[in-house]
Write a structure and sequence with these properties.
Length: 294
């Protein structure tokens, strides 16, 4: 593919605004002022790689073609992801969340455990969750486990479903975990069937009110920043309603909650902050409302 200097393409503010508005109208994803430089740079790179005449031509192309629109959105939503990206979160999952779930559900039949990876990208997060469950749960086969892994990107989901990763991708996976949960093939490291069958991958835009059932834990890492405050609150309400009483909600390290009507309890576990839906239905004291801002 031809290489172009990043400054070649000139884009007017109105052209960028037209593309930004189209994306928000069609997918409810907002690239606000905090991501202005990222947005304009990615648009310029895309125009140059595809050898499109300019911003106006790109706008017409993505407005008239769903395929071209999705390709542009894929480029804009490409996020850094990795196995066990936030180790403290998985430590909290193993040492705090899973023991509570086991105690609460020990006598249930069937003994079900449901976790939602919302914005799963290319699958590393969902597989990290599944590996943690396998390593931490005693008699894991006695549980009915479902990890729902959703993302807006079809391309990312196709890669996730393959479950095939390079050696470099596994740099934060221990050698014992690689041996136990991956098969070394000539094309890369393949996630073993025992792990893959725990996960259901599905395309989903979080603003769409799709029923997912009750969850014991929801991961939503570095995703809410792509939505307006109004839509963010609506998504958080859905997450809160989907959680079992006592269920946990996990955000990325740089994300926090505040001024939301959902009365999550805020807990600091090790090096991370996690959020819990109260077990009891009675009104909670004001002190459990979260102090940070989203």
């Amino acid at each position: 593919m031809k290489s172009h200097p990043a400054t070649t393409t000139k884009l007017s503010e109105s052209e960028l605004d037209d593309i930004r508005t189209l994306i928000e109208q069609r997918s409810a994803i907002l690239f606000d002022a905090s991501r202005e430089r990222f947005f304009s740079t990615r648009i310029r790179e895309y125009i140059e790689e595809k050898e499109i005449a300019g911003g106006a031509a790109l706008f017409e192309l993505v407005r008239s073609s769903s395929t071209e629109y999705e390709a542009l959105l894929e480029r804009l939503l490409t996020q850094e992801t990795s196995f066990f990206r936030y180790p403290a979160i998985y430590d909290a999952l193993e040492k705090r969340i899973l023991p509570e779930v086991q105690e609460r559900k020990f006598w249930q039949n069937p003994r079900a455990l449901r976790i939602w990876s919302a914005g799963c990208s290319t699958g590393e997060e969902a597989y990290s969750i599944a590996i943690t469950l396998c390593d931490a749960l005693k008699f894991v086969e006695a549980w009915e486990i479902e990890i729902l892994a959703t993302d807006i990107s079809r391309r990312a989901l196709r890669q996730a479903e393959r479950g095939l990763y390079s050696k470099r991708s596994l740099q934060d996976v221990s050698l014992g975990q690689v041996d136990a949960h991956f098969t070394n093939t000539k094309h890369g490291f393949q996630v073993r069937p025992r792990i893959r069958k725990m996960i259901s991958f599905a395309q989903m835009n979080l603003v769409e009110p799709v029923y997912v059932g009750k969850m014991d834990c929801i991961f939503c890492m570095n995703v809410l920043m792509y939505f307006s405050e109004e839509r963010r609150l609506a998504i958080l309400r859905r997450f809160y309603d989907a959680l079992e009483p006592g269920g946990y909600f996990l955000l990325g390290h740089s994300e926090t909650l505040s001024n939301v009507p959902m009365k999550f309890e805020s807990l600091v576990i090790g090096d991370c902050r996690i959020y819990r839906k109260p077990v009891a239905a009675e009104p909670r004291a004001a002190s459990v409302l979260l102090e940070e801002s989203l």
